[in-house]
Amino acid sequence: MSNNSTFSSPAFAKRLARRHAAERRFKLIGLGAIVLSLAFLALLLFIMMHSGLGGLNWNFLSGSDSTDPHVAGIWSAAKGSILTMLVTLLLSFPMGVLAAIYLEEFAPRSRWIELVEVSINNLAAVPSIIFGLLGLAVFINTLNLPRSSPLVGGLTLALMTMPVIVISGRNAIKAVPPSIRDAALAVGASKVQAVFHHVLPLALPGILTGTIIGMARALGETAPLLMIGMRAFIVTPPGGITDPSSVLPMQIFLWSDEIDKAFVQNTSAAIIVLLVFLLVMNGLAIYLRNKFEVRW
Amino acid sequence: MILSGVLLAVIGLGLVGWFAGRGRARLLYTGRGSMHSMPGYHGWHLALWILVPALLAWTAWSMIMPGLVDGAVMADPAAAQLPAGDMHRAAILADARNIAANPDAVAFDPLAEQLARPMRAAQIRFGMIGGLLVMIIALAGGGYGFTRVRAGFPARTHVERAILALLLIASLMAILTTFGIVASLLFEAGLFFKDVSPIAFLTGTHWAPGNARGVDIDGNFGAVPLFWGTIYIGAIIAMIVAIPLGLMSAIYLTQYASGTIRKWVKPILEILAGIPTVVYGYFAALTVAPLIRDTAASLGVANPSTESALAAGLVMGVMISPFVSSMADDALAAVPRAMSDGSLALGATRSETIKKVLLPAALPGIVAGVMLAISRAIGETMIVVMAAGASARLSANPLASMTTVTYQIVQMLTGDQEFNSPKTLSAFALGLVLFIVTLILNIIALRVVKRFREAYE
């Protein structure tokens, strides 16, 4: 009886209504947060499209940097980016995969290995500008490698990308079930053979996904390259990895500093090109993950 | 030139060795169990014996050769006219090296032209000596390796040992990088602290490296305004934006949204995390900062500056929010389902369950995520370079132009500069402080996350 009166009293109904209103409010705030983020993204993309699409034409894509905004193009910067990424990939991919294999499959539990793990986890979170300082102090001032070159840029970005590849590689290797290794060992394969002939091919899609994501990050990186002087005014596309060159994000940064208003269109158009590149890379990573991911 | 040719020759020799080793091992094969290792392993073993010692020798020689060449050039009579100053001398030698490599190049100094000929002769001489040495080592290694191709020889064991060594070296690269960062920052910052006292640097409130000369050098390197700007933009404004935005979208997506919405919205929000920071910086400078300036002007603020801490912090907050969101997502997912089920079964509404049960239980994970987000925000460079401004000031006014540690690092190291001046070196001292702070934040956060996961497992 007392229960019934509690549940039907006006005070209870009022309290319940208030609680439900609070519930709706909370849900709305959550929805609002998402809508706000999406709106920000949409605004950013819209403004870049609006001010940049008009500048996208063949002359822009194939031209080189210039002081005249109407002739300036991005091919020299894009070529610099390609060369830099090539150096980064060639160094960080093998290094990262080999380190991941060692840490996941062969490393004994020891102090040293713990130190390696801790330093990899920390390197993945070190601000990118610190890698730029490292590149400046070691590659340019100590080893005297050519300043502003894709070689030094690639080396610096490789150090930055390697931890990302190691971490994703370890997760991919960890996901391969032990029965695969056991089966290989049982028919007489050595440990090295079991890993390189069986575990690695199965983990490769996961490793590649992580590598592409790491490379996409490196492609958009500007701060460390600023440190090693890749901000020169480059009129001819670099011929090799030791020539002075610029990269796409750096070109965006340099143009954004120009006083001439006509460079706004160039900057936005270059941003569109960079974003398309990144979108394609990330799309490829998602495609690889969906296509080859095996659920054991 | 000669050395790159030698490198190609060594690699070609290695390839030949691989085929020779495999071919010879195949000839030895007489039936199942007649050999310890497969022919391919004999090929690799032989190739390794050719390549590894030769490549080591090649690397060593290409490192010592420039010194030998310079020594030979110094012995030339023309070198007697070289100036005594180290910097000048090195510049002329570099110029001569350039002409020696590329005869069409134009010399800045007539002396370089004279030195180019002996330089070229020395390069050819030492290149030949080194090349010959490397080839002899490669052939000797190959000869030794070839005698090892026998039926009972455990080539596989040896090759696998080499592979393991390679794996170990690769994983030590991580330590080497960390060590390189610490060593280079400490070394350069040490040079800086020879001129400027660390206490003045860490506690001074006046930052004007441009005026730093002579006696008052300490007074112009006070980095407190930079630390304040960094904290104000990265840890206060950006977090005021990023924490509610990230946390609430994580809560909505995990607790309220239907499967299809989650499937579509989550990847789209992750695009925010993938956009390069230079794009955010440009957006902040082109759109957000003028918007804030105009709004402030219409609200009656006198002379609002175009570059403001608010513009940089706001955009940075949006950029970091997907990161906060994914950390919060992980933390919420780690809370056992039984806890929220229990709360719901007692009649609590979903929002009450989230606020009173889920969030407190997930708090350590969320706090760790926020710490990692702060460590990212304070290390963020391009947004502040493009939108925050250059004036070092201690102010709590979000509309004021403010500078940060990362901005000053960029400022000190770009443009014309002489290396080793306190102004340039201060960038490394700032880098050291930044590295230490982010390191501490990361270590604490990772430890909290680890303990938090263990608590619910």
Could you explain how this protein is built, in words?
The complex is a heterodimer of chains A (about 300) and B (about 450). Chain A is an all-alpha fold. Chain A contains twelve helices and no strands. In chain A, helix 6 packs across helix 7 (about 150-175), helix 7 (about 150-175) crosses helix 9 and helix 8 (about 180-185) packs antiparallel against helix 9 (about 190-220). The longest helix of chain A is centred in the first third of the chain and has 43 residues, at about 10-50. With about 450 residues, chain B is mainly α. Helices cover about 75% and strands about 0% of the residues of chain B. Chain B is built from 15 helices and no strands. Chain B has helices at about 1-30, 40-75, 85-100, 110-145, 155-195, 200-205, 225-255, 260-275, 275-300, 310-335, 335-345, 350-380, 380-385, 405-415, 420-455. In chain B, helix 2 packs parallel to helix 5 (about 155-195), helix 5 crosses helix 15 (about 420-455) and helix 7 (about 225-255) crosses helix 10 (about 310-335). The longest helix of chain B has about 40 residues, at about 155-195. The model of chain B has no long low-confidence stretch (mean pLDDT about 85).
Task: Tell me what portion of residues of chain A adopts beta-strand conformation.
Answer: under 5%
Output the helix-strand order of chain A.
HHHHHHHHHHHH
Query: What Rg of chain A do the Cα atoms give?
Result: 26 Å
Q: Name the overall outline of chain B.
A: flat
What is the topology?
The complex is a heterodimer of chains A (296) and B (457).
Chain A: H1 2-8, H2 10-52, H3 58-62, H4 75-106, H5 111-123, H6 128-142, H7 150-175, H8 178-186, H9 191-219, H10 223-227, H11 248-256, H12 263-292
Helix pairs in contact in A: 2-12, 4-7, 4-9, 4-11, 6-7, 7-9, 8-9, 9-12, 11-12
Chain B: H1 2-28, H2 39-75, H3 86-101, H4 110-147, H5 155-195, H6 198-203, H7 224-256, H8 259-274, H9 277-298, H10 309-334, H11 337-345, H12 350-379, H13 382-387, H14 405-413, H15 422-455
Helix pairs in contact in B: 1-2, 1-4, 2-4, 2-5, 3-4, 5-15, 7-10, 7-12, 8-10, 9-10, 10-12, 11-12, 12-15, 14-15
